Amino acid sequence: MTYVIAEPCVNVLDQSCVAVCPVDCIHFEEGVDRMLYIDPDECIDCGACEPECPVNAIFTEESLPPVWARYTEVNALWYRDRDAARRLVDELRPDDG
Questions:
Q1: Which of 33, 39, 64, 65 is a Cys-bridge partner for 25, taking CB atoms 3.0 to 4.6 Å apart?
Q2: Number of CB atoms found within 10 A of residue 11's CB
Q3: Does an H or E element contain 75, and which?
Q4: What is the separation of C-alpha 97 from the centre of its chain, rounded to a whole number of angstroms?
Q5: pTM of the entire structure?
């Protein structure tokens, strides 16, 4: 099991979760990314990030709402191919503005 950041983070980018992560597994590129990403290989499933998120965007894989299921793929993909992950985010949630 790992934690996943889902759609509520898109265009919010609150970094409260980053500050409490004991293994620094949450990343993004400022000025480039529209959301933050959890590295599934580095996440230790401690859950410290989940209650810190002001928009309730962080879920365990098992509790991720089905409507946001593709964000599991998005988070993992960012660590292999950042541009592909960004395109997928844009596909899943076109820019509002």
A1: 39
A2: 13
A3: helix 70-78
A4: 21
A5: 0.95
